[in-house]
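Troubleshooting: if your tokenizer reports a length mismatch, compare against these two reference records.
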Amino acid sequence: MTRSRDVGISSKQTGIISLILTTFFWGSTFVLVKETVSIIPLDGFLAVRFFLGGILLFPFGIKTIKAMHLDMLKDGAILGTLLYLSFWFQTVGLTMTTPAKAAFITGLNVVFVPILGVFFGRALRRIELTLSFVALIGLALMTLDISNFRIEIGDAIIVLTAIAVALHVLYTERVSGHDPIGLVIVQLFVVSTEAYIVAMARGTVWNPFSGMNLPYIVWVTLVVTSVLATAFAFFSQTYSQNVGVPSSHIAIIFALEPIFALLIDIFRGVIPNLQIFIGMLLILFSNIWIIKQEFED
């Protein structure tokens, strides 16, 4: 197994660490994104965010881009479309359900990944499925008001988000032979293009240079999400799967996102109740098991 010369850890362990950082960036930027899309159109924001993410990675992938072949373009386009659909379905669903339920239903991908993985030729391992359900129960406790739960039309739409996320993780695993940077650059530009097309159709195109007097938070959100929650995040996922971190493990690690969002809330003075705390422990248990297994390999 390849070892890093500087810190003495394997490529897979580096991937695990970068995935945990990714969930931290996603969870900690939730408040920023929520505030920003209340000021500027979501489709316009996504188009600019993913375009900048692709531009940031472009200098590191020039050699790959020059030698890029049709298969990488095709696979990157498929991944980009799945990624955009996950955002689109979630946005539409959020107009017809609560953010808490949307967070939980999106988290269903933690179970969809091992189940749908069967159609990608992956074995359905009992321990992975068990840990996935444990993480799912944790997500339910963290995000749902069990006493006031009912099914809405928006819930069904957000199930499509969870499926899109699961398919994105599984397809990334299938095409992991491609150069990670080249594959990520293609999919980020595809997301940006599709978001721009939708923004044009809806009349919500956003030119960040047309209104330089926008609130400070918009610029902070754009920089942080483009660099950390987009370029770094999706390169980390692709790199991790390229070096052999299983898709089911990635889905469980992604369940850490609401924990980091919760920690930010605690920092802001919001104290969780016992139900949320138990849910957090269940997600942490699943992740500790997975991380321990990866670091013992």
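Reference record two:
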Amino acid sequence: MTLLTLIPLEGGIFPPGLLTSITFWICAVFAIAGALGVVFFQKPIYSALSLALVMVSLAVLYASLNAPFLFAVQIIVYTGAVLMLFLFVVMLVGVDTHDSVTETLKGHRIAVTVAGLGTIALLVLAVGNAVTTEPVGLEEANASGNVQGLAELVFQRYVIAFEATAALLISAAVAAMVLAHPTRLKPKLDQTAMAERRMQAYAASGRHPGALPNSGVFARHNSIATPALLPDGTVAPDSVSAIIEERVSIPSAEELSAPHAEAVAAIAGGPGEIDADQIPAVERGHDHPGLSNPAEKEGDDHE
């Protein structure tokens, strides 16, 4: 008796095996659709999501066959860890990266052909064995417990295949690191070459050969996205990285100088008209941590 045969319906229960068969045919459709998506989708991110559909469908099948441990492992380990590894590799290599059709390893296509034919033979033998032999049933398979029976198979009968799978996953992780750090197409420039390039740009277009200006440093802003201001009050165009300009809204010179102009206007109104709440805490000094009141500091100096 499986987990799904105990669900009541219309005052009774399903016949034994009915819900298991229904679950199998529904999940089989989703699993096959996901497998086809893994193969035929051109974008790797879609293929990875299709693989997630396959793994979740298998997990539901394990639950219907009264294998709670395999159900949990399928969700936690494969869907939650291995699939995330695939997505991590996709992010490292790049979503828009196209596969190269150039054969860089000698005999690579022959080896792939042989491996593909071997995989097809294994699938045919597995399906033939499942169709021609009589299943032992869940009661006999879980006679000593689902976890205990699975541990006996993994660490005794299939221990070599288990260790080979672990080696395959380690190889995939190493391959991901290799793909993420490709060979340089151009040699890395040293300090001398970069200095010569700056001088050539200065001679050709008049671009200043020195370092770029730093970002703005103000009392109210310490973000690297804050641009520096030139002596005439305009924004220095090279003080903020072009990458930051595409992702963050860069404040203008008027926005940066507006709080200061308000404070100056409040002070210009006279001592009797100054409202302490209108002056920002950064300018009051004694209300800001790390800043001291100038009058108190002067008194400390006299002491």
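Descriptive notes for reference record two:
- The radius of gyration is 34 Å.
- Residues 114 and 120 are 10 Å apart (CA to CA).
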